[in-house]
Design brief:
Number of domains: 2
Number of helices: 4
Strand content: under 5%
Distance between the termini: 90 Å
Shape: elongated
Oligomer: single chain
Number of strands: 0
Helix content: 55-70%
Structural class: mainly alpha
Largest sheet: none
């Protein structure tokens, strides 16, 4: 622990109860946070492995902690993609159906 009192002869405050808000932060915590941020930013697995110095996807899984908000965003993106694909399929189906009806109507089908 650093000196318990100020080194200046004039002051002498008691520093035993003073602590930094970062006093429990470890470098290792920053590593986990950085890998999580990279994963959530859509960086490729190979890129994250390279930056973090991991040699296996298993270690990457151990170090990345995908947050709930990131999971929600991913599900929203997936959901929008599914809706878009469904809409396109329905439009294609109805266009074919209308086309057949029109061809029959004019005597071509």
């Amino acid at each position: 622990m650093p000196a318990e009192t100020c080194a200046n002869e004039q002051c002498k405050p008691d520093l035993r109860n003073v602590s930094s808000p970062l006093h429990k932060l470890r470098f290792h915590d920053l590593r986990h946070h950085a890998v999580t941020e990279l994963a959530e930013s859509q960086a490729s697995e190979q890129t994250i492995l390279s930056i973090a110095g991991h040699v296996s996807p298993r270690m990457l899984a151990h170090y990345s902690h995908v947050r709930l908000e990131a999971k929600r965003r991913a599900v929203d993106v997936l959901s929008q993609g599914v809706m878009a694909q469904t809409t396109l399929r329905m439009a294609h189906f109805h266009r074919r159906k209308i086309g057949k009806s029109l061809r029959r109507l004019v005597g071509l089908g």
